[in-house]
Amino acid sequence: MASTIRVRAILNGEITEVQTLIQHPMDSGFIKGENGELTPAHFIRELTFEHDGRKVFVADWGTAVSKDPYVKFSFKGGNKGGDLKVSWIDNKGETDATIVKIQ
Amino acid sequence: MTPHNRFPATRRLILKGAGSLALAGLGVISFRPATAFAAANDKYPEDAFKQKDAREAIKLLYGRTAEPSDKVKLDAPEIAENGAVVPIAVTTTLTEVTSVSFLVPENPNVLAAYYRILPGTMPNVANRLKMAKTSNVIVLVEAGGKLYSATKEVKVTVGGCGG
Questions:
Q1: In this complex, which of B49, B121, B163 lies closest to A67 when CB atoms are compared?
Q2: Beta-strand pair B97-103/B135-143
Q3: Which among A26, A51, A66 is the top mutation candidate for probing chain B, defined by the most B β-carbons within 10 Å of its own β-carbon?
Q4: In chain A, what is the greatest distance between 2 CA atoms, to the nearest angstrom?
Q5: Where are the domains of chain B?
Q6: Is the per-residue pLDDT at A61 higher than 70?
Q7: Domain ranges in chain A?
Q8: Per-residue confidence at B160, pLDDT binned at 50, 70, 90?
Q9: How many CB pairs under 8 A join A and B?
Q10: Within 10 Å of residue B76's Cβ, how many Cβ atoms?
Q11: pLDDT of residue B16
């Protein structure tokens, strides 16, 4: 299965800018589905970014993060060709992870 | 999706809570954060995410109140046509930032996202949030052990708390 995570990490000077898009329903649990019943909450709780094994950024999310979430941040200390690992876990225990090279 | 009556009766309580929420003027008079607060460790702040009242969420998350700061820039649209996807970002010139969080007091659960800014990471974060209706958006920046905030109202034309 293709990764749910699309991430781009670009080094500019000493700062690496990271943009991430994830495919995930991010169901809040407050919305009724077509059957008239509330769709149970299903959302990413934690999204973690590690550069060469060191955590640089952690997102803790609730149900108010939009469907197919997007997040952008930047950090110092990245190197061209260095690894950036992105991983998430949702409230059902489902997970995904990917590793990209810093460009 | 039914456009109305999506929220339980606790909605009234949220409105009440948001009305009495006065971040401004509270200053930094507060007790010291203990290690039990979410901001002090790296556990998912489960309880803070369940709160219906912004002050409660902030208290659970940080154990202190926030001081409005013009060094915190909250970038959010004046009007969001689609409440399901509202682009919101923060930048700050504050140093020693350890976390950033976004709250939408009119949402069923007020805390939307909490970001841990680890050493070397810039205190600038952009994300997209759902807004059930017109509301203030509050961003909190924890820097040097203190808590700062910025607030902006976003008018929502079509609410979307679930997309």
A1: B163
A2: antiparallel
A3: A66
A4: 53
A5: 10-158
A6: yes
A7: 5-29+41-101
A8: low
A9: 125
A10: 21
A11: 46
- Residues in A closer than 8 angstroms to B97, CB to CB, are none
- Cα radius of gyration (chain B): 15
Which band of pLDDT confidence, cut at 50, 70 and 90, is reported for residue B158? confident
B118:A58 CB<8 A: yes
Q: Mean pLDDT throughout A5-11?
A: 97
Give the mean pLDDT of B3-23. Answer: 47
CB contact under 8 A, B116 and A57: yes
Q: Which of the pair, B40 or B72, is modelled with greater confidence?
A: B72
Backbone angles phi, psi at B32, to 5 degrees: -70, 145
Q: Which of A32, A39, A74 is nearest residue B124 as measured by Cβ atoms? A: A74
More confident residue, B123 or B32: B123
Query: Is the complex ipTM more than 0.90?
Result: yes
Q: What is the CATH number of domain B10-158?
A: 2.60.40.2470
Task: Provide the angle, in degrees to the nearest 10, between the axes of the packed helices B10-20 and B54-62.
Answer: 70
Please state the pTM of the whole predicted model. 0.83
Q: Is A23 on the interface with B (CB under 8 A)?
A: no
The domain made up of A5-29+41-101 has a fold known as Immunoglobulin-like (2.60.40)
Restricting to A residues 36-75, those with a Cβ less than 8 Å away from any Cβ of B are 39, 45-46, 54-67, 69-75
Task: Tell me the C-alpha distance between B116 and B50, whole Å.
Answer: 19
